[in-house]
Structure formats: structure tokens, C-alpha cells
Amino acid sequence: MGQTQQTGSCEEIDVKALQDMYKKFVLECPSGVLFLHEFKRFFGVDPTGEASDYAESMFRAFDKNGDNTIDFLEFVAALNLVFRGDLEHKLRWSFKVYDKDGNGYVDRNELRSIIDSIYRIKKCSKKDMSETQLSVDEVVERILDAVDFDRDGHITLEEFIRGAQEDPWVLNMLRLDMNPAGWVLENRRKSAHF
């Protein structure tokens, strides 16, 4: 019998799903760590498919110690943040996904890369695209205009958080990337069928 646990954000943590994930983690990674190619295989992501760039960004955000591997504790810590974290913590995690090179700020190319990946994933999965009436470049420009307060062409963590908290449209656009739990669980279910 599966157990679920309610969190403050009304998301449910399914204990059985976590146990299944751990079993799959240990089965596929007896060494106890996931490398990028294993991470993609773990979630059924085609290495060259639409979700590949997004998966790589998620991998970097999960890899807390920067050793290019994810151990199960890093994996669970990231999922716990996604399920239970407050908005600021989720935005901090999301910033790491956007900051692809880890230099402490998001530039136009990084922002465009993630937004483009998200658009491609949504298009392939036939998700609601009502917000995507704007082109990727239009979304990038609008986010930069709203969030890059000092107009230096870079978004710092502080600007990222402040901009998302002050502008509902920006928050909504950044939330495209703020639900990795749904993406993880959706892709875990897909990979279970193969």
C-alpha cells in the first residue's frame, strides 16, 4: 500500500515512489553515483532528444558538490527542495539550472538556451502552450528587461529572485523551469514503460 505525505505546498510525496526510485537508483548505479549519461538513461531521456539540454541543466543543479556525479543524497535533497521548499529556495535552485556555466550570473545565451529547451519539451509533450505565444527571443528580452536591474546584461541571483518575486509574468515564465519534480516523475513513469 503506497503512503503519501502532504507538504505545506499541497504537493504529495509518495513514499512508494521514492522507494521505487531508490531501488532503480541502486540497480542502475551500483557504484552509488549517477553520471550525466546515467542520469539521462535513469529518466528515459534520449541523449540527443528535446529534453537533453534541460536534463543536463537539472543534472548540474542536482550536483551540489560539483564533482560531476549525483549521489542518492544529492538526488533526494534536490527532490525534497522541489517538493517542500519555499519560493525563494525554489528560485535559488532554479537559478542554478539557468546558470549553466556556474559563474554566478545568467547571461542572455544561458537564459535563451533554457527557455528554448523548455519550449521544445512543452511542444513535444503537447503541454499547454498558451503562454508561449511569444517567441523564445521575445521571452528572453522581456525577462531581461524586467529582471536585469543594473542593465549590465547579466542576471545575478539577487536580481533573479527579486525579479521573479516582483513580476508575476516573470515568475510564471521562470516557473516553466521550477517544477522539475513533475518532469522527473513524468519521465520516470515513461521510462518504466520501456
Automatic annotation (TrEMBL):
Residues 50-85, 86-121, 135-170 form the EF-hand domain. Coiled coil: none annotated. Keywords: Calcium, Lipoprotein, Metal-binding, Myristate, Repeat, Sensory transduction, Vision. GO terms for cellular component: cone photoreceptor outer segment; photoreceptor inner segment. Pfam families: EF-hand_1, EF-hand_7. One of its GO terms (molecular function) is calcium sensitive guanylate cyclase activator activity. GO terms for biological process: visual perception. PROSITE patterns: EF_HAND_1, EF_HAND_2. PANTHER family: CALCIUM BINDING PROTEINS, GUANYLYL CYCLASE-ACTIVATING PROTEIN 2. This is Guanylyl cyclase-activating protein 2. The lineage of its organism: Eukaryota, Metazoa, Chordata, Craniata, Vertebrata.
